[in-house]
Amino acid sequence: MTLHIYDTLSREKKEFVPLEPGKVNMYVCGPTVYDYIHIGNARPVIFFDVVRRYLEVSGYEVNYVVNFTDVDDKLIRKAEQLGTTVPEVAERFIGAFNENIAGLGVHKATINPRVTENIPEIVAFVQQLVDRGYAYESGGDVYFRINKFADYGKLSHQNMDELQLGIRIEVDQRKENGQDFVLWKAAKPGEIHWESPWGPGRPGWHIECSAMARKYLGDTLDIHGGGHDLQFPHHECEVAQSESVTGKPLARYWMHNGFININNEKISKSLGNGITVNELLKTVKSTTIRYFILSSHYRSPLNFSDETIAQAENSVERITNCIGNLKHRLSVAVSAASEAELELRSSIGAIQDGFRSRMDDDLNTPDAITSIFELVAVANQYLQRPVVSAEGLEMLIEAFALFDKVFGLLPDEEDGEMLDADIDDLIVQRTEARQSKNWARADEIRDLLAAQGIVLEDTPQGIRWRRK
């Protein structure tokens, strides 16, 4: 089976064929950096990280762009509240974003372009729209004529009459049509601004992504992604802007993830139920958060609660415990393989084929997770054998590692936790202390391991450990 992706524009699953064989250009709308990201923002961050990982494991070279909106009304208000400047607000929360995605085990994008670093390209893009009659200046602002673009509404599948329900229309005599959207905003006194042919101002929200996507990835993207809430108006406006300039499709595949609710309620400032990733990472492991996000199909809604997080934590623990058992047995395994290893290789191959088949079906992560637990079952059954080979154990460990390249569900030994080798060394020291009846030293090592969340268990093969 080859990869098929559900395309928001066509409303159907389509075989994935990039413009250039072996290469994928992917653009995902990034954060407006005026505050910490919340759990709802974490869903596209993690999901599209997995999309990128899976494409890379599948042999593609991925050019992955995630932008930063570092000038906006929200940043201006935040700077006023904090008594600082817009650039200082942006720098603070870009740093926080980078720390948070690292904490979530997310690989950094190929590039994170900033609006403020691409003003000349944005101004030039707006000028092209003006020159072609798709945009007009009024009172220092520049607006896009949506009536000029015949396909406006094709992405979100709305007609012009229905658009009244999707756009908050304000009475503005400067617009030719109340639904026209802003490309360039005239600066108010004291606001951050840049010079332009229409006077001092700054970009509108929608135009920035059109300009940066074209600059860094070309006229047509392979994949354009983001949250469901971006379909309209943001992505709809991007389509109109970009295709009015290039005459080409903006993206071959549009991907939009569903919402996250908190205890079955929509995340809302009025409800005060937003949970920032910054706070969440203080109490919940990154692997648990990733599992929670991936346990539901990306286009479906997802509910965050203490119960769903606990379920995710238990599931990740089952996987890590299994791998811990494999690594423990590897230290005492025999070198010779037998008929059992031939059967094991066949079972692993079938599970890996199933994993790829499920991922190829519109990145179906919850079904693909079942492949991981199929591997857990096979591994646990193999571990029941009185004699296992190093070859068999290594096959299983490598199979888990391949899955982890895509999902990132295994703990990083460099994330501040005690390394496996150090734990093994301490267990040896504790065993020697007990044998020499140095109970104080044995208890000291036990307490040290417990403080690191390491649980010791006696097994017929000796002491083994696992992380809580």
TrEMBL record:
What EC identifiers does the entry list? Answer: 6.1.1.16
Keyword Transmembrane helix tagged: no
Q: Where in the cell is it found?
A: Cytoplasm
Binding-site residues, Zn(2+)? 29, 209, 234, 238
Name the Gene Ontology molecular function terms of this record.
Answer: cysteine-tRNA ligase activity
InterPro entries (UniProt xref): Cys-tRNA-ligase, Cys-tRNA-synt_Ia_DALR, Cys-tRNA/MSH_ligase, CysS_C, Rossmann-like_a/b/a_fold, tRNA-synt_1_cat_dom, tRNAsynth_Ia_anticodon-bd
Q: What is this protein called?
A: Cysteine--tRNA ligase
Q: Which gene encodes it?
A: cysS
Reaction(s) the record says it catalyses: tRNA(Cys) + L-cysteine + ATP = L-cysteinyl-tRNA(Cys) + AMP + diphosphate
Domain Cysteinyl-tRNA synthetase class Ia DALR positions: 354-418
